[in-house]
Amino acid sequence: MDKKQLEKYAQLLVRSGGNVQKGQLVIVSCAVDDACFGRMVQEAAYDAGACEVRMDWLDDQCSRTTYLRGADEIFDSFPQWRVDKLKEQDDRGAVYLHVRSSDPDVLAGVDADRLRRSTKSSREATKEHTRLTMGSFRRWSIIATPSPAWAKKVFPDLSEENAMEKMWQYLLKGARADGENPIADWETHKKSFDERVNFLNKKSFDALRITTKLGTDITIGLAKNHVWEGGGDTDKDGIPFFPNMPTEEIFTMPDRMRADGRVVASMPLSYQGNLIDGFEMTFKDGKVESFRADANESALANIIEIDEGGGRLGEVAIVSNSSPIGKMNTLFYNTLFDENASSHLALGKAYPKNLKGGDELSTEEFIAAGGNDSLVHVDFMFGTPDMNIFGIDENGNETHFYQSGEFVFN
Ligand code: ZN
Ligand code: ZN
To answer: Which end of the chain has fewer CB within 10 Å, C or N?
Structure first.
């Protein structure tokens, strides 16, 4: 891939993604295998005026080895120094930039119970950091870069070299980072969300009924005073940023107590190195009543059963089929990309910003207002090219605003 274009991609992450400000502390997390690109991000962050850019180098293979060979008790605790590290960074107002290139299969064969316990202990220990990032008190942004194992998973018929080249093309195109001026392209992209968000916020539907030919037929109640979001975020100081690049979705908060019907996933879900495939769930009064999967059902159970909120909805997101990623018709085995190709739901924690005044509420108040709380937030795809969505108002009137995979306003 052309070095100049990669530098533009790194700048896009720094300037549009995290929107790094002068004098700011920046934390870059990046795989050791991807050090060249990580260094470009560091350079770009200093160019943007960062006072210090710290690198958190990751290695999936080392994590895998620890899951396989570590003593059993280590998965029940999370080191205090790592909690303190996050606190020091958050206290200094850090912005977090994440470069992700994980092999979707890296944790395959790892004991599911170790994964569940490790997720639980780390999420519990880092709750405050999650509150700050999910509540947009701290800015953060995630982009993806290819790795050989991931590229071969997506394009198994190509040689490793050709698969990597093609992945770069797809990731840059999907992230709208393949043009002459990606930063300007993202400004234009941001404006395109307004019509959809404004329409849905004005309607303020009581519920959505969603159907697909795969068998999804579900009515999802929306929390009273829910807010539709999309096209980036703004932090508490009014500084805009894009948490996810790409982003094509508009999304809001379901009422945690109101979802009834059946949801059939339209894509496999890669969760902690396991591919959950051929799965569906049935909801009653907002809670998963039954579920099944053709492959890795225990990984799905790990999400649903992690706590009370794991089996309830925290997000409903709508994506138009004609998005650049939707048009690629490619399974990436990666939520950042797949969730922007298809309408999706999330099990677990809801975003406080999807409720008016949501981030001023205590956890108890948020739950009472219909917001879901959990240690997890896991998106799964259920959108199809034939999907239909009806908005239902408080009197039961239906508005068919999304037809055959596209938004229609009238
Ligand atoms: Zn989403
Ligand atoms: Zn989500």
So the answer is: C
Using the mean position of ligand 1's atoms as its centre, give its distance from the Cα of residue 244 in Å: 9
Residues of the chain where predicted confidence (pLDDT) is lower than 70: 410
CA of 161 to the centre of ligand 1 (A): 31
Please report the pLDDT score of residue 410 as a whole number.
Answer: 58
pTM of the model: 0.83
Residue 115 three-state SS: helix
Q: How far is the CA of 80 from the centre of ligand 1 (A)?
A: 31
